[in-house]
Amino acid sequence: MTLLELRAFAAHCKDLVSLSINVDSSTVPPFENSPETRISQRRLYSLDVAASPISDPPTVAQFLSGLFPALRGFGTLAEWRWDDPVDDDDDEETAHARACHAQWKQVEALVPIIAAIRREELEWAQVSTG
What we know:
The protein is mainly alpha-helical. It has one domain (6-128). The chain has helices at residues 6-12, 57-67, 92-128; strands spanning 18-20, 46-48, 73-75. Strands 1-2-3 form a 3-stranded parallel sheet. Strand 2 (46-48), helix 2 and strand 3 form a beta-alpha-beta unit. It is elongated and about 60 Å long.
């Protein structure tokens, strides 16, 4: 599953509040600025991404905040493990999961901030256009 394919969940699962899925976030689709094709699902608040690959947390957060503006929680694979200090003996798979967790936690912190900025800009646009 890619970020772009998440649009299908947003378009067809309007009552979805929680989703657990591996999503390849190494490529972020461009911003959809056409009102005719823009999709926004406002009920999803929790997304568990396991150890999904991610390359650019701020850009992923921007994409997800537009698609799922109510999104607040992100789960990752065995996230309880990542509270422990980094272990130099971590194997490659564990090191990858730890790195993905850290990047997804950046997304988790950014999504509500970006969503709030979007709401504020929308309100300003509505006020300024009468």
